[in-house]
Amino acid sequence: MTKLPDPASDGAQMSFDGRMSYGDYLAIDQILTAQKPLSTAHDEMLFIIQHQTSELWMRLALHELDAARRCVAEDRAREAFKMLARIARIFEQLNNAWDVLRTMTPADYTTFRESLGQSSGFQSWQYRLIEYAVGNRNLAMLKPHAHRPDLLAKLEAELARPSLYDEALRLLSRTGFAVPEAVLTRDLRQPWAFDERVQEVWAQVYRNPSAHWEAYELAEKLVDFEDYFRRWRFNHVTTVERVIGFKRGTGGTSGIAYLKRMLEVQLFPELWSLRTAL
């Protein structure tokens, strides 16, 4: 019979009395006791864990977004590229999570849907912070957080900062591109609106990538992120339609109709439209 290995013989620490263990470092006890189903339905645990893990991935996305934006603002775009690539892969993970949730059937969901009350994913303040950070600044979406002054303060602080896209355009301006002054001094609280002059600036980059390689790579990293972000939104729509059809959302939205309207929102519209213009 094969003798099973003993990690202690290889020098592994086996006693953690008074020492920090893996579980201590990662606060595993707190994480694994954060699931508190409000019904006896089997699939409510899936629903809770899928959304909790999504919030953890969004926590990391915000961490990376903040660092990437800071790098771009400090003319360290090359350092931001790795972070932006990581954010795209985070959204790939978020996309994969929908595949697990889609194993829940409409019959499964109805067994606990009433337990959700008025709670809904569109109330996620981290998701809203991500949208604000990249430039989709819908002020109406502050209202669901008005009952939490601490969260409202986080969102308001984000609205006072240049978005990632704003910082990218400011970087282009600092490196000699003719970004319109009105764009550089715009009201940061307002959502980004398509600007043909900005499209032409990006088109200059794309017409001669070798001469503007850093700006070109920055543009492609932004497009890569939005590509995965769009897929996440599309998978959200598909999952909701598969599970509840065209019922209204628990938070009161029109459900599928509302989510489909969100598919039309572009974060960096000039980077997409220039492909037709080139």
What's this, in brief?
This protein is mainly alpha-helical and 278 residues long. The chain has 13 helices and no strands.
Tell me what the structure shows.
With 278 residues, the protein is mainly α. It has a single domain (41-277), classed as Up-down Bundle (Methane Monooxygenase Hydroxylase, Chain G, domain 1), CATH 1.20.58.480. 60% of the residues lie in helices and 0% in strands. It is built from 13 helices and no strands. The protein is globular, with a radius of gyration of 22 Å.
What keyword list fits this structure?
mainly alpha, Methane Monooxygenase Hydroxylase, Chain G, domain 1, 13 helices, 60% helix, globular
Assign the CATH topology. Methane Monooxygenase Hydroxylase, Chain G, domain 1
What is the oligomer described by this structure?
A: single chain
Can you tell me the residue ranges where pLDDT is under 50 for at least 5 consecutive residues? Answer: none
CATH architectural grouping = Up-down Bundle
Tally of discrete structural domains: 1
Helix content: 55-70%
Structural class: mainly alpha
Give the rounded overall mean pLDDT: 92
Tally of extended strands? 0
List the helices and strands and how they pair.
Layout: H1 22-26, H2 28-32, H3 44-73, H4 77-101, H5 106-110, H6 125-134, H7 149-159, H8 164-174, H9 181-184, H10 196-207, H11 213-244, H12 256-262, H13 269-277
Helix pairs in contact: 3-4, 3-6, 3-8, 4-11, 6-7, 10-13, 11-12
